[in-house]
Predict the structure.
Amino acid sequence: MNVINKHATLVICIIAFLFIIIAGDIKLSKSAGAIDSEVIVLRAAQSKSSNHPVSQGIDKFAELVKEKSNGKIIVETYHDGLLGDDREVIESAQRGSIAFASSSTPNMTSFTNYFTAWDLPYIFENKEEVYTAIDGKPGDIIRKEMEKSGFKVVFFPDYGFRQIVNNEKPIEKPEDLKGMKIRTTNSKIEQADFEVFGASPTPVAWSEVFTALQQGTVEGEGNSYSLLWDTKHQEVLSYATEVNYNYSSDMVVMNKSMFDGMTEDQQSTIMAAGQEAMEWQRNRANEREAEAKQQFIDYGIEIYEPGPKEMKKWKQAVKPVWDEFVRPGMADPEYVEIILEELGKTREDIFGD
């Protein structure tokens, strides 16, 4: 009987040992880019909610990678900041702790100040201009520049234009903002936008904006309809002014060393999936923004849409921001001209000089 027990114990120990090894292999296969004999498993992380169009675009990318690789490459997606905020996931991708990360472009200015030009008010006046720039020479310059920091740019999800929203009063012209406390990001350009509008720009961490509006720390903010609705900001807002004062893109990057270590077929799969996901996501982002705008209206938010003459006033109000920031070390003047040339317009076309 003792012999049987000894054998049973030995078998249990062997099974437990094998389980530990297998579990270890599974864990390894779920690291940044580990390979078992058949499948590469890669992690992609970002901070937006799982139902945001950017997140949906990344999920679509993962779906396409699996499909195009016949299940040989799996991309696991992590949203809602599960693996860190924008900055943290980008740094993780740079180190190779994860394979992919996505961030809004203003958070990428520490890698290249070319993104500062994208922040300029009204440099992009509609989505067609955004896509033209990203798909053309200005986007290619960014792609090459990011490689110097160890990133392979896979695609640019569409985040959207920022609108001005508040809980105090209707805003029809820039001077209506005078004295109002408006939440901004840490972007110096966005803060300058509201300064020239006459408001008091107040940087607040995104996670604290709802409470800041609720408590009166700020009276308004700038963001896209879809993000505002998905985070329930309509509950603490009453008015919106659709002026498209700033466009913010996201970008999905991959650790370049990992990308370079792949076969040509695997690289082609990743990039083809990224291109297809970007096209799909642009449509979804535009659909969602229209849906969210209608949700704002149905909720009772008063939306003001300036006409052409009024929009000219909004644009002319921020001309001093260009004068301040279009200079070497900030929004590179040469790169700004490349964008304008790609779009077939001039500064005078924007500001009506």
About this structure: Residues 163 and 211 are 19 Å apart (CA to CA). The first helix runs from residue 2 to 29. The chain is about 50% helix and 20% strand. Residues 1-11, 13-31 have pLDDT under 50 and may be disordered.
